[in-house]
Amino acid sequence: MRERWFGATGRKVPEIVLEGTVDLEGALLLDDVSDVAAIHAAHHAGTPVVVRASTPEQVHAALSLGPVACVLVTDEALLALDLTEMTYG
Predict the structure, then answer these.
(1) Contacts of 79 (CB under 8 A, 6+ apart)
(2) 52: which DSSP letter?
(3) What percent helix, strand, coil does the chain show, rounded to 5?
(4) By C-alpha distance, which of 69, 60, 85 is closest to 7?
(5) Fewest CB within 10 angstroms: 19, 33, 63, 81, which?
(6) Mean pLDDT across the stretch 43-65?
(7) Which parts of the chain fold into alpha helices (H)?
(8) Pair 83, 63: CB distance under 8 Å
(9) Stated pTM of the model
(10) Domain boundaries, the chain
């Protein structure tokens, strides 16, 4: 399981998490990655950024942004994505 820093909290979280399994208190929770300015502003403020995703492509797009701490999913199958394969083929 790959992990990422959860903003400036000093803790790490899985890069893909099933909704309801990780404490996301204090995070900026977004439904997609369209508001890049908000993502970067939150990151610079030390606020963890969490993005919801429902497809492999959405997961990949969110995790392609360095400031995103983790992606929140409801489909357990998305927890097993091979992001390296998706990125490099």
Answers:
(1) 16, 18, 73
(2) E
(3) 30, 25, 45
(4) 69
(5) 19
(6) 96
(7) 36-44, 56-63, 83-88
(8) yes
(9) 0.91
(10) 3-88
